[in-house]
Amino acid sequence: MTWKEYITTRMFFHCEPIEKVADEFIERSNIVNGDYGYVSKCIYSVPGYWDIAKVFERLIEDCFDEENVFEAIREVYASWLATKIYNFNSDLYYQPRNYLRECYKQGMILE
Asked: Is the pTM value of this prediction over 0.85?
């Protein structure tokens, strides 16, 4: 499924509850249950989940074409950069999208 098809059928028209769309995506992507307790380790206020989603959405848009959105999402969320972004005790989450794109492409945090 292309990015445009996914947006058109699921997200753009908001035709189904977000929980159902998320469950379908999790099942289709074979995401396993696990401990994703990044929030419990944070000493500062944590951004809302929509704000975090925007960061990842932009990273996916900036680094991948629209051919296979599921693979792109899986790759970005499982990447080394996702782990760094989830450290809300750092300032990486707040960096501009072009900086995050270049970090992802270079495979390291840029100076």
From this structure: no
**Which residue range forms the structural domain that includes residue 63?**
3-106
Q: To which residue do tokens 């959105």 refer?
A: 69
Region at 30 (left for phi over 0; alpha for psi -120 to 50; beta for the rest): left
Structure-token pair, residue 82: 């996702």
Asked if 69 contacts 6 with a C-beta cutoff of 8 angstroms, the reply is yes
Contact indicator for 59, 76 with CB cutoff of 8 Å: yes
**Tokens read off for 2:** 């292309």
Alpha helices in 1-111 (DSSP H): 3-6, 18-28, 49-63, 69-77, 80-85, 97-106
* pLDDT digits (tens), the chain, 111 positions: 555 565 555 554 456 777 777 788 778 778 787 766 666 776 777 788 888 889 999 999 999 988 888 889 889 999 999 999 988 888 898 899 999 999 999 999 998
Among candidates 79, 66, 67, which has minimal Cα distance to 108?
79
The verdict on residue 111 lying in a domain is: no
